Amino acid sequence: MNHSDAKDTLRSLLGERDAGVLATSKDNWPYANLVAFAVSDTLREMVFATPRQSKKYTNLTANPRVAMLIDNRSNDISDLTDTVAATAIGMTTELDGSERERCLSFYIERHPHLNDFARSPSTAVFLVTVERYIMVSRFQNVVEIAV
């Protein structure tokens, strides 16, 4: 798969999936959670929301480095050969003010059912500035995409 095809496949995957697995860590202990996300047109920005009372929030404030796995598996035996999975690697920032509103606009456009949750004062909104995606298809075809 060439770089252009890989980026098209990545864009399609990110457009069709609403949730991914966010990996955080604190004190050398990994932690993973399913989160609803939205991605910008440039693919460089991913946004998600989390309660400030969560372990995820505690981990993110201690260590802003994250990975987010998004895939199209269907829980079928063919998943081993047919699944496309992309891992976004980047740094998080908790948003406030106008930047929070800017990112919330495309997050809520993608997830209107999460409007009340995302706008709650007890919810933190995070921006992942994606450095690169590592995409795997056909079980062993690995492509790295810098954004």
Task: Explain the overall architecture.
This protein is an alpha+beta fold and 147 residues long. The protein has one domain (3-146): Electron Transport, Fmn-binding Protein, Chain A (Pnp Oxidase, Chain A), CATH 2.30.110. The protein has five helices and eight strands; from the N terminus they run H-E-E-E-E-H-E-H-E-H-H-E-E. Strand 1 and strand 2 form a beta hairpin. It is globular, with a radius of gyration of 15 Å. The model has no long low-confidence stretch (mean pLDDT 93).
Poorly predicted ranges: none
Radius of gyration: 15 Å
CATH architecture classification: Roll
- Mean pLDDT level: 93
Q: What's the β-strand tally?
A: 8
* CATH level 1 class label: Mainly Beta
Helix content: 25-40%
CATH superfamily: Electron Transport, Fmn-binding Protein, Chain A
Task: Give the SSE order as H and E letters.
Answer: HEEEEHEHEHHEE
Contiguous helical run count: 5
User: Strand pairing plus helix content: what structural class?
Assistant: alpha+beta
Number of domains: 1
Biggest beta-sheet profile: 8 strands, antiparallel
Shape, principal axes of CA atoms? globular
Distance between the termini: 17 Å
Report strand %.
Answer: 35-45%
Assign the CATH topology: Pnp Oxidase, Chain A
Keywords for this entry:
147 residues; alpha+beta; Pnp Oxidase, Chain A; 43% strand
Task: Write a concise synopsis of the structure shown.
The protein is α+β, with helices and mostly antiparallel strands. It is 31% helix and 43% strand.
